[in-house]
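[09:14] KT: can someone run the structure on this one? pasting the chain below
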Amino acid sequence: MLDSANPYPRRRDFLGQLGVAAAALFTPPIRSEGRHVPARGSSWDLSWVDRLTDVPYRVVFDANDVADGFALDLAVMFLDQYHEVYNTNDDQARAVIVMRQLGTPLALGDGLWDRYAIGAEISVQDPATHQPARRNPFLRAAPGSSPEAAKAKLEALRARGTILLLCNIAANNWASRHAQLAHRDVETVRTEVRNSLAPGVILVPSGVFALIRAQNAGCAYMRGA
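[09:31] RB: done, structure tokens below
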């Protein structure tokens, strides 16, 4: 259910339905055998693809909306439940989160959230202050957070081996729009965005490229918003 005062679906509205939805949204991976080497001169970092090799259980989450961090909750569920069922460690189950379109703010660092008042723009509160977030609340847990809440943050997921990807097209579009709103040079803001991503986030040519490439590497696909 959507809150009319907040266009981003709340986590609790999703989690109550996950028992049915999680199984229904998984689709078989598109497999492509062999090693694919980027073209000579390519500047894109594709080292993340190698991290999917020889991992028994792989999934890519399509985070095309902030959705109160729903993709992060799903990644935790995937890692924890595969550990419970198969007794895996974190090297045997790998999640990929592709942040694109309206999910772009998930990948932005605290400095950008503060400078561009992202929390007020997308109606996301800081759980520590209960005010519009001036930091990325999906990056790390606020002081006093429960252990369960702390697990569903980018830093905690990255520590467990989760791959964090951001669509370059979405990042550039976000920068262009905010440069216009702030009356700043577009290329300056684009550079600022590239240099101020959340730690560990890798830019990819597009979210579509990342979703397809992850499935080529054996990942199941699941909606993350």
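[09:33] KT: thanks! Residues 1-9, 14-35 have pLDDT under 50 and may be disordered.
[09:34] RB: yep, looked fine to me
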